[in-house]
Design brief:
This protein has 160 residues and is mostly helical. The chain has seven helices and no strands. It has two domains: 3-81; 91-159, no CATH class. It is extended, with a radius of gyration of 22 Å.
């Protein structure tokens, strides 16, 4: 696909997805789940139309990508209908998982469950609450600077 055509397609795709994202925010605030369900359906139809137009122009791999990924692109909106909130993009989670993998897979590193839990807690704070992390760096030996998770793990350590 030539660059100008790619830019045009990407602009249209962004417009479709950002409109859906903004509608999800609005309809969740208004608690209008019927309008939210309609927006999900309209977004899927728009993605289908975009894919069809790409197929007509001979961009079969891009057509297949959009057809195969359309439902995944609106997962956050579908889950919002079921009162489940997830981020509309997963870049933060992907970076966090990559960071944990990088720390765990370094050569000669052997992590105990407690050590691994500590590193995950620190990384979670870095990514989800930077102000808390900054305050811990300023005063690391304060009792209030202890990092703990509010929820108990679902797997017991003996099951590892």
């Amino acid at each position: 696909m030539p660059k100008p055509e790619c830019d045009k397609t990407l602009k249209r795709l962004k417009h479709i997805l950002y409109t859906c994202r903004n509608s999800v925010k609005k309809h969740l605030t208004d608690k209008d789940m019927d309008a939210l369900a309609d927006r999900v359906a309209v977004t899927l139809k728009e993605l289908d139309r975009l894919a069809a137009s790409l197929k007509k122009r001979g961009y079969n791999s891009t057509y297949r990508f959009i057809k195969n990924s359309a439902n995944s692109m609106v997962t956050y909106a579908k889950l919002a209908l079921k009162a489940q909130r997830i981020p509309w993009d997963i870049n933060v989670m992907e970076r966090l998982i990559g960071e944990v993998a990088k720390r765990c897979k370094s050569r000669w590193a052997h992590w105990s469950p407690t050590g691994l839990e500590n590193i995950v807690n620190i990384l979670l704070v870095i990514y989800t609450n930077p102000s808390l992390y900054t305050s811990i760096l300023r005063n690391p030996y304060n009792e209030t600077s202890t990092i703990t998770l509010n929820e108990q793990p679902t797997v017991r350590r003996s099951e590892f």
